[in-house]
Amino acid sequence: MESLAEVYQEKLRNNNIQSSMTEGYDCYQNALAERINGIVKQELQKLIEQTVEIYNTKRPHLSLNYKTPNFIHNKNAELLKALH
């Protein structure tokens, strides 16, 4: 019986794709790749947070009459407080 990993590797070879997985099951062989992936994920998370911050606090929206989402949210919160 052929294992799933062997089928996978054969598909890669048939499509001229080189596997980046290491053989020998040594987790330390991928340490550099894992480190780079970690750095990229951290930087991407920072970029997403900055983008959301700009979108919500600095970028006016036509659909909000050129106000920011945070401005509208805060005004709605003030109106709700005034009603109570």
Describe this structure in words.
This protein has 84 residues and is mainly α. The protein has one domain (4-83). Helices cover 63% and strands 0% of the residues. The chain has three helices and no strands. The protein is elongated. The model has no long low-confidence stretch (mean pLDDT 87).
Structural class: mainly alpha
Please give the count of helices. 3
Order of helices and strands: HHH
Number of strands: 0
- How far the N terminus sits from the C terminus, by CA atoms, comes to 70 Å
Mean pLDDT, rounded to whole units?
Answer: 87
Strand content: under 5%
Molecular shape: elongated
Largest sheet geometry: none
Low-confidence stretches: none
Number of self-contained structural domains: 1
What is the gyration radius calculated from CA atoms?
Answer: 25 Å
Fraction in helix: 55-70%
Protein name: Integrase catalytic domain-containing protein
Organism: Wenyingzhuangia fucanilytica
GO biological process, one term: DNA integration
GO molecular function, one term: nucleic acid binding
Please render the helix and strand layout as text.
Blueprint (H helix, E strand, L loop, with lengths): L3 H11 L16 H27 L11 H15 L1
GO molecular function: nucleic acid binding
InterPro entries: Integrase_cat-core, RNaseH-like_sf, RNaseH_sf, Transposase_IS3/IS150/IS904
Protein name: Integrase catalytic domain-containing protein
